[in-house]
Structure formats: C-alpha cells, structure tokens
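Lecture 7 notes. Example A: sequence first, then its structure tokens.
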Amino acid sequence: MRTIIPFNENWAFLKPGEDRVPVTLPHTWNALDGQDGGGDYWRGECVYEKAFIAPDRNANDEVYLEFDGVSASAKVSLNGVSVGEHHGGYSRFRFNITEHLKTGENRLSVAVSNAACDTVYPQNADFTFYGGIYRAVRLIVLPKIHFDMDTLGGCGIRVTPKVLADGSANVQVSARITGGRAMFALNGETLTGNEVTFHLENPILWQGRKNPYLYTLTVRLYDGDTLCDALDIPFGIRSFRIDPNEGFVLNGESYPLRGVAMHQDWLGKGNAISEADMEESLRHVYDMGATTVRLAHYQHDQHTYDLCDRLGIVVWTEIPYISEHLDNARDNALSQMRELIEQNYNHPSIVVWGLSNEITMAHGNQETLVPFHQKLNDLCHEMDDTRLTTMACISPLPTDHPLLDVPDVLSYNHYFGWYGGHLEDNGPWFDRFHALHPDLPVGVSEYGCENSLWHSSHPEPGDYSNEYQMIYHESLIKQLYSRKYLWATHVWNMFDFAADAREEGGTKGRNNKGLVTFDRRTRKDTFYAYQAWLTDEPMLHLCGKEFVNRDGDETKFVVYSNLPEITLTVNGTEYRKQAEDHFFHFTVPQPEGDYTVTASAGDLSEQAQFTHVAEPDPSYRFQQGTVLNWFDIETPEGFYSVKDLLKDISLSHDAAALVKPLLAEMTAARAAKAEQKERETGRETVKSGEGISAADRMAITLQFSLLQLIRMGAPDMPKERILEINRRLNRIPRVALPKDVDREQMEKDGHRK
C-alpha cells in the first residue's frame, strides 16, 4: 500500500548574496517585493535544501518525490546526483528517487528559477511571477506494482462518464498500471481489468450549484491476493453543450454561466497559500452566487478544482500562454497543456481548456501564431474529446482574425468604460459580433474597473472610486446578463492581486479591479450587486457606509437587494422604492450635522451613520499629481473637451491638430522613462505594445479619452495645463457622424489605410 509523507518542514533557503535561512513550505521569495510596486521584484535562481532520513520501506518499494508547484523551473538533485528537471510553474510533477536514496541521511537540493527567459511561459503578463516552492511537497512510498506515477503528474486513472439518450449513463474507466490486477467498485458493482465500463440506469447528475453530486470510484490494485495500491476517485456525471444562441446548457437545461476570474495570490503571502486560503477564496465566489470561475492565468492547485467540484462551480482552466507568442517556448506551452489535461481530467467542474490569453498583445512571429494555436487545439482534442477549447481574445483583435477559427468557443476581454470607449458600448459590440458570427459561441472573459476604495459624489472613469465601480458593474450586469447568447461572463477580477509593475489609484504593485480586497477581508459594494442578481436567499446591502462625510444639500444612497421593495429611513423620514434590476437608487435631502440611515426590507436591515459637511472631504479622493476636480473641467454641449474619446477628437481636423503634439510629447516621455529604468536596473523593460501593428495600437489608443491618456501617460501634468487644453478644445465644434454611417466599419477601414 502507498504511504504519503508530508515533506514541507525543515528546509533551508539560499538566495544569492544572502545567508541561509530556515523555511517551511509553501514558500516564495517574492511575497513582499512582488507586491510593493516598481516592477523590480527579484527574479533569478535560488536554492532550497533539505536533509532527511530515508523513509521506512520494504525491499521492493519505490519512493517518489512529488511537488504540487514550483515556479517556474526546478532542477532537483539528491545526494549530488540530478534526478530531473521541470519547467512550468503551476503543475504537479514527481520523480522516482528510489535508486538515489541512502540508508542514512540524504541531502536534497532544488534549484528554483523564475528568471526571465524565452523558453518557459509566462514571461509577459500583468501579474507577478512569484518564485519558489510555493505548493506542498511530499514523499510517496509504494510497491513496485502501483498505479502509474510517471505520466505527466497524473494519478493513472481516467474516468469518463457519458449520459445516454435514455437518461442512463456509462462510466468508462481506464487505468495505467505497472503490473498486477486492477479492480474497480462503483455503486456496489465490482469490475476487473484495465479498461472497464459501468452502466448506471438512473444516475444522479452533477447539476452545478443546484446539486453538485459526486460519485466515488474505489480503485484497488492486487498482486495475487496482496493489495498493493489503492485510490478513491471522486467524479461527476453530467452532459453539457455550448450553443451560439442558447449559451451554456447543462444536462439539457439552460444554465447561464455568470461569474468571475480569479488569481491565486494573497496579500503578504504571494502564491504561497494554504488549503484554508483556497477555501476562503472559493467561499467568496460561492457566496456571491457565481455559477462559473475562470482560473486565470495558469493551472491552480488540485484542492481548488476539488472545491469547485464540490461546490458546483463550472470551471474554465487554462495554461499561461499569455500576451506574447514566443517561438522558443512552444514546446513548453504544449507540455503545460498536457499536464493540465492529464492532472485534471476527472474533474466534472471543468468544461473548457483555455488555449491562450490576449496572445496578440505582443505576438512575436505572426507566421507561427495561428498554426501553433491549431496544434495546441488539436492536442486538447486528442487528449480529451469530452470537453471544448476556448481562448480569451484581447479587445482590439479584429473580428475577422484567423485565430477566431481555432477554438470551439471563444471570449473577448473588453473594458469599454474604463480603459476606453463608453459603458454602453459593451452590449452592442457583442451584438455586432454575434451577427457576424452567428454559429460561433462568444462570451466575455474579462471586464472590470479599478476600485481603490476611494469615494466620490461625482464618480467618473479613472477616479478609482468605489462609486464608479458600482456604476460600471450595474451597467455591465444589465447589458451582459440580458444577452442569453453569451455562453459565459467572467468579471475581472474576484480579488485584487499583485502586478508589481503597476502604480494606480494610490496603490503600488496591485491591480485593484477585485470585487473583494487582496486580503479577502472586505467585500466591496459591487460584490453585493452580483449577489443581488445571482442568489435567491434574501439579501440586502446598504452601499457606501464608509463614505461618511458627504457634502451637498442632497446625497445619493444605493441599496442592493434581491427583494422587491426597499425602505430607506433617513433620520426618521421614510423613502420607498421598487427596482426590478435589484439596484435601488435614492436621492434624498441631507439633514444637517450627523444623521442615521437605515435600509430595510422584511426582516433584513442595515444601518450606518453619516455627516453633512460643507465641502468635499479630500481624504476620500485619490490625489494624483495636481488635484483636478470634476467640476473644473467644462464640457459645453456641441464642443470638445478633454473628456472626449480620442476617436471622437480625431474626427475634427482642428481638434486632432491640437492634441497631436501632446500625444507625441507623452510618447517621448514614456520612452525616456523606460530607458532610464533600464539603465538603473540593468534589465530591459517589457514593452507590452511590441509586436502590435500600428493599426491595432491606434485602435486601442482611440478608445481612451484624452483625460485618461494624460492620467496614464503624464500623471504629473499641472492642473493649469490640462485646463488650458480643455479651454482650447471647448472652442472647437464637435463633428457628428450621419446616423446611417457604420462607425465601427469606418474606423476599421481607416486603420487599414
């Protein structure tokens, strides 16, 4: 029988130029510097060492060393002899170390590298690539006759359920063994052989959140009458299809996939998290009412997939083939996909394998990009003909690009209303795509905006306020959830996460688009907007409770609830509202001084204290460079302003001529800053726009307002200069397109010239 020995204690960690320190796994050396901003977290090779006594075992037993995740490359030596290498930071791998073990003390060394290279994914992405042995390690002792331990980190057992037309089900089981006789037991029936099929007349189906029922396949391996190895494999029986008009269909019934994407890392821990941390993350996802999660942008720990199986959350899982197509890393992408599929084949929650994410952001060799996607797609279907493939497309990817023909289904990452464009652009864009490709299922793989927990009575794009995130997601919920044909929608992101190169919203090293904070302690108000739409258990949430000091004779309160009517009581005065969209907006007179607000419905209520102040409280606002208040920027009707999108400004010869020198100045300043950083750090700066065609780069830029571009490209520009540019734009009449002009096609044609 196999014996599993935890192997996480008493390691020594050696970083170049530093003293040896004792560590307990999981461990990452970037838990702090990978989250503090600057894009300068340490990447290189470190060494983990461990002395241990060989485990007790019989003469013919074998010993495997198993790693759940080492980022990103590992070279493992035992007693000075190499036992193997692994490249890819997110999958399980193991080595047979039997022949290298000594009877006394043994010394294990693991050289781990997250250094930049062009042979291992990921290398270019908007998140921190933590280094370390950041998941669990164990020794596994088992007889020579055992279930396969040498193929791609898998368990050696594949379970393939199939629901038949009459409602019964076949459960096909295959086993890879090193010898002996395999026996399988399910529902009181026992079968023998390496390939067997069970038939269930009335199977209990895995129904997502409605009933995530799991069977357990009992697997035993005998040498004669001697039991050598044993496994218990949970699995679910379900059928699904993805229809271009009906969306996701589970077991013959419409089952809208509405949920989130999530990274694995935590504040102060990086990716070195515990199973309890994983459970806490999935608790938030489940409580929100999500029916799906996109496990971005890499393979997550097995415990996370187990949790999704048990909770009934449908999974999109993917490899870190992201942002940039690297010819030298093609073999590594294939290897990571093989491991992803082999290790996760038995999970009923998984329905799609993700090929790539925003791969055309800096796509390298265009000639090999599409053929390699086809090869990757074929690999998925060869290894698993029960699931579909998908891909997350960057927003400006043309809707006639040949990549769209590769996966079975696809999704787009769109941020209209944050990085550019208007909020109302989102739904119509997908309507146009659906009309162009009526037979291709399309979904939304990313959408979101930053919320750094600032507050504003006059929220707008780019202010990083809680209130703008509420406006954004209220609009997106109504636009996306009403379009049944969208096979899945995934908010970016469930949690704030580390992106060390970022400095936005007053927070260094972080992407703050989460519905929940990085430490998982605070559910932002927008979390409850989704909960109101996606859950049936009565809920009520009064938003903006931390926005205590409010100016103005009137103020706005928002309540999210799945109940039909809400009563808002302000210092004893009651206001009632009904809202079919679950978003209850109240504009009420502000009492003088301190006052109490209560939101109630049925047995539910929430209360908070507020204060009427004479002037806006500056402590609630993000102070970026010189403070520019919303009311400072004049936007006269029929004329341009800095709040206009660049695509609108470009329609006017005079407005475009005014803006062109400013854009050139910001581009030059950005290049100079990158060169200075390269000189200071000695490392080449990643240029995320490299490889993008001039037309596609312009398409991206045109979606931003001039004010957004200034805030991103010249955050220290004096307030007076911005206002002067605005005044000059205010004198230029807007150019309006005739109603019958197809603007999208016009812009597309213009970019091709």
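Example B, a different protein, same format:
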Amino acid sequence: MTSNIRRAIRRPRSLSAFVAAIVALAVGAGLATIFGQENQPVDFSHNVLDAPAPVAGAVFGSGPALHPGDLICTTPFQTSANVDTDCEKKGPSNETSIAINPTNEDNMIGGANDYQLGLNSGGHVTETIHSRAHVTFDGGRSWSEFPILFGSAYQATGDPAVAFDAAGHAYYATLGFRFVGPTNAQNPDVLVANSGDGGRTWASVRVATGSGNFGSVGDLLDKEYVAAWGDGNAIVTFGDFRLAQKGSFVSARIFSSVTHDGGTTWSTPQVISGNLDEAFVSVPVVAADSRIYVAFLNTTDLTTGRDDYEVVEVSPSTGARLFGPVKVATTIDGFTDYPLAFGRQTYQDSLFRTWAAGNITADPTNAAHLAVVWSDMRNSVLPAPGNPYAATTNSDVIVSQSFDRGRTWTATPAALKLAGDQFMPWGAYDRRGILRIGLFDRRYDAANHMYGYSLATEKRAGALTFTTTQLTTELSDPTTGDRWFAATVNPAFPFATTFLGDYSNIAAMPSGGIAAYWTDMRQKACFGSRCGQGEDAFFAIAP
C-alpha cells in the first residue's frame, strides 16, 4: 500500500553500498516508483502516499461510515503545558497545521495526516488515511475530532493546511487520492473544505484535478497550502509536476486558485511561478494590506542540486501573478549537503526524510515587512557522508526579510546557530511585529538524536537575532523504537523512524502569544504484537 511514490534526489553514480542497500529496502511495499531518468535532482514528491506504510503489509479499507458533523471522539480536559490533541488513537498522526479563529481565539483547528488502522482476527491489517479536523473551543484544553468528507471516490487524503478568514470562516486544504488497483493510485487532486461553525461540519470542493497514475504521463499535484482573509476570501497554492512516459520529469510549476464566497466556488488555477519550471512546495501569506505573497523553492543549480527560495506577489482578486519571481536566497540543500536514507535527505543517525522547506510570513504592523524561514546545512560539515550513521550534521534555521513588499531581501540571511540539528521551521509574526519561529530542535540531546519542539523569538522587531526556548516538556527520539514508520538499517538503532511528516507549524494568537502544533513521539503505542513510540499531534501555547 503506501510506499515510495517519489522522485529521488539524484546523487553521483558512485553511491555507497550502504545507500544502495537502503534504497533496496525502500522499494518493498506496493507503489514503488522513482520518477525520471534525466538530470533532475529535486526530491519533488512529498505527499502522504509517498511516505512508507505505518504497518508493513497493510491494505486500504473503507473505514466506518461517517456524516458531516459527526463527533468522532473528544480528548479529556488537559491542564498540562503540552496537550495531546489525538483522541482516535487507532494509528499515528503527523504533519500538523494549525489556525486560530480571529473572532474567538478559544476556537482553533488543527489538521494532520491521520491514519486509522485495524487488525482482524486473521492478522490482516487494514488502513485508511482520512484527515480529521482536530477542533477545540476551550483554548486547547480539550480537542474533538470531526470528519472531513470529500466523497467516496477518495480512499485517502493528506497534506493538511488550515486557515480562518477574518470573519471566522474556516478552510481545510488537502490532497485526495483515488486508487485504481491494490498497488497504484491516480495522481492526487487538490481539495478544499470549508466550515462556518468553527470546524464541526464541512462542505468540500475539488479545486484542481491531477491526471494520470503514479509512474505514468500526467500531472502530479503536490503540497498545497491555504491562506484566508476578509469575509469569505481564501487562496490555495500547489505544485504541478508534469510527467512524461514512465513518470519521467518534464517540469514543475506553482499554481494558485482563489475563492470569494467562503469556499463554495474557486477560480480556474493559473501558473504563478513565471518562467521557473523546477518549482515546488509553495506557501501563501496575506499581508496587513491584503496583498498576497507566495514563497516556493526552485532548483536553479542543476550541478549542485541546491534550491533558491523565490517569492511572487499575486492578485487577491484573481490569484494571478503581479510581480516576481524574486530570489530570496540559495538554500544549502544539494546533492552532497545531507546524508541520505531511502534515497532522501536525512540527518545524523536517522532515517526520516527531510528538506529545506519552511514558509513566508507577514508583519501585521507593517504591510511591507515580510520574512522567509527555512533550514539548511550551511553550518554543517560539507560534503556530508552518504551514510547517515557515518555523518555528523548541524542543520540550522535560516531567515531572510524584506521591507519593500518582497522586492529586495536580506543580502546575508541570518542563521540561528544552535548546536545539533534544527529542522522543519515555521515562522509567524505576532501582533507586535516580532518574528516567532517554531522548530524541531535536537540541541537538548548531546548525541543529536532526540528532539524537542522550540520557539525562537526575535529580540526586537526586524533584528533577526533570537532567543530560543523549549516548548516540549519531554523529548522524542526518532532514531530508535518507533512503532509505526520504522526500519532497522543499523542494528544499534532498531525501528528507526522513517517518516515524521514534512512540516509542523505555529500560528499567532489575536490577543498575543503563539499556538504551536507539532508531531510528538513521547507516548507508547501498541498495535498487534509490538509496542513502540507513537506519533501524535501535540499542542502548546507560548506567551
């Protein structure tokens, strides 16, 4: 079932035996396709179906019949500093997105890749991946899960993104997957649901349609994200990877679509990445004056494989590109900058996939002030060994800012030079115009194995110097003991995590402070005959 539907990051031909062995392990279950043969180095595909299966041998089932507004479950009321938002507890959750209702900040919605697993008496495992709305109405002390229904055609949904507009109308974007057999799926569609009651009930719309199957001619849509503003206005952006025979790479461009009626109808998607055709992982943001900017990565240097962060301005009315692309900076994320596991970038003593991607955020006190946040290996030892168990890595969070609506950017981006690896950052300006960054942070462990979730806070507006505090009250160890997405490549690290999701994020609260939402591994999870560390969507508030 879910396996490795992906473009691999291309390395020089002299791959080590270790990496070759890992790649061989990766092609074990079902949908194993490595797109393309030409010199295209980008690890483009980062959706829920190109992640490994949480339990080997699982097959897709149908899951229980649910209706809009059905309450699936509710967590206990929690007064702890870290709150578990998962109540279904039938499988892992990861890749978290959070939004706060500006008309009632006690109402928040979290999105996640939610896996539902079942085990029958014969030992057969069934799985569904149906994204849930994790909803709170008491400021995050208790959370309820509600279904988001996109029709029976979709056997799986994933890659969540959530937003509220200024009137308190909610939007939940995701990808929808339709299977055409036990081991293949159509290229996903971009779906957006909307809710007028704080996240209890949802109506859904297909905004863009993928074409072809994994590994065939077609359009593979990937990594959508949503932003909203005003009363009934929202934009969704996404990547379109055009594929030729046998799924070989042709181009990668960013598209946008807008709604002005609360998500009932959406405009025809249009290209916004200009003449760039190696573009992927876009995130939109709405500035204080309702101008909209979109940041994305583009592989400009095919020799090193490094990407450039680019920014465009688009029309709030139509979603059309108005200005750009403008280069923000080059990210240090190329062929020899990271160790590899399963053909994808990772960190020291680790197997889970990662990348440089972050986001763009806008200052509510100054409509011309923007920041782009990402992580890369500029302060690590380069070139990195291909074998992660032979590497010592030091990934850092990097920031660039603009004071002229994205026309020019910091000449030398600022780095948060912390010990160990920091990765998957997400930036948000708080109501004072202070940049806050949520990040996975391994500096709490001298071995550079366990991570906490941290919040970096700018010392003064525009300074790009930060203090960093830990939000997690317990650390997570992705190097060993995972119950779900697990593989053993080095016997000293059994059941190492192979998938944590591709992002987690934060959101600024209207009254001040930050809500953080991340993938946490502190809790024990048991399924079948084996127990290990779980993956759960955790929440915290920071002043």
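Note on Example B: The chain has one domain: 5-542. Residues 1-42 have pLDDT under 50 and may be disordered.
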